[in-house]
Write a sequence for this structure.
């Protein structure tokens, strides 16, 4: 049984302070992630507190939290002197969203074995969101502020949503976490744009080359020409690319032109300029351990107060 008590130090001044906690998060297949949860709090006036939490999962040995594999931030509901966390937050102004700011894959994100790309990354993200869901039950959605990229085999990144759309007809977060846009009408509009992309007739290859392949090596351009002239639609063309070259090589082939192409058909309107969400109800509850020996607190003139006390059964 995990007895989890998070406390903050209530400052007597208007300065910000923070309390840091160390956790060991565990995924269903046995990955273990060293993680740090930091509670930041600022005294706004005599009655109100501004409280934020930041979770860093898969922390590198350097201790630099900006290099963590997953970063999630939470804005706690504001509180008065009788602050107590409740499951049924009633005020419509209280935040119900946690921000998934960053997710990236390193083999050493887990501390006990190499983290596999794909399924391992999904487990790491679900584990991080599961922790937030249990510690902050007022969170109803995760807002994806993660500008994800995928590292191709040439160690150069490609925009992950665009790469996944060319292969699967949906984004990585849609496929793995049922991510969605709000309102529903906007998501329906995006879905129609995906269908349009699939059936878009192709322009002449000479025009396509001038518009999008200026940075593509000549030998690659000739390989693209061969498949392009045999295709009727963009969906048909990218299907042929994947069948002939496989996803790893296509990742490299697309790097120099897919961003510009997606902007030209206004796909960036839905991918880069909108908030995508994951429903917290779809995230399971995983176990975690509070490593109290690693707890550190910023020193100030303070008064201790509990902001969240939870008992988790494994």
């Amino acid at each position: 049984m995990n007895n989890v008590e998070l406390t903050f130090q209530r400052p007597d001044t208007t300065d910000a302070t923070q309390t840091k906690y160390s956790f060991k998060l565990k995924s269903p297949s046995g990955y273990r992630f060293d993680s740090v949860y930091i509670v930041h709090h600022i005294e706004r006036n005599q009655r109100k507190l501004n409280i934020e939490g930041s979770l860093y999962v898969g922390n590198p040995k350097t201790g630099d939290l900006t290099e963590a594999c997953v970063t999630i931030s939470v804005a706690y509901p504001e509180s008065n002197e009788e602050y107590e966390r409740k499951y049924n937050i009633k005020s419509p102004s209280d935040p119900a969203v946690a921000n998934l700011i960053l997710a990236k894959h390193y083999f050493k994100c887990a501390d006990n074995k190499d983290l596999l790309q794909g399924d391992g990354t999904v487990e790491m993200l679900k584990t991080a969101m599961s922790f937030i869901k249990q510690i902050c039950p007022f969170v109803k959605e995760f807002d994806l502020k993660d500008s994800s990229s995928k590292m191709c085999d040439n160690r150069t990144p490609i925009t992950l949503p665009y790469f996944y759309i060319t292969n699967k007809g949906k984004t990585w977060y849609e496929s793995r976490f049922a991510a969605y846009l709000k309102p529903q009408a906007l998501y329906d509009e995006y879905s129609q744009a995906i269908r349009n992309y699939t059936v878009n007739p192709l322009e002449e290859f000479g025009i396509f080359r001038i518009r999008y392949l200026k940075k593509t090596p000549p030998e690659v351009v000739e390989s693209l020409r061969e498949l392009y002239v045999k295709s009727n639609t963009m969906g048909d063309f990218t299907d042929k690319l994947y069948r002939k070259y496989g996803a790893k090589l296509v990742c490299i082939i697309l790097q120099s032109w897919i961003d510009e192409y997606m902007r030209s058909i206004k796909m960036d309107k839905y991918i880069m300029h909108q908030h995508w969400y994951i429903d917290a109800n779809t995230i399971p509850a995983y176990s975690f351990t509070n490593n109290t020996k690693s707890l550190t607190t910023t020193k100030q003139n303070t008064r201790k107060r509990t902001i969240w006390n939870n008992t988790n059964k494994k």
User: Anything to note?
Assistant: Residues 1-145+275-314 form one domain. Residues 1-5, 7-15, 79-94, 292-314 have pLDDT under 50 and may be disordered. The chain is about 30% helix and 25% strand. The chain has two domains: 1-145+275-314, 148-273.
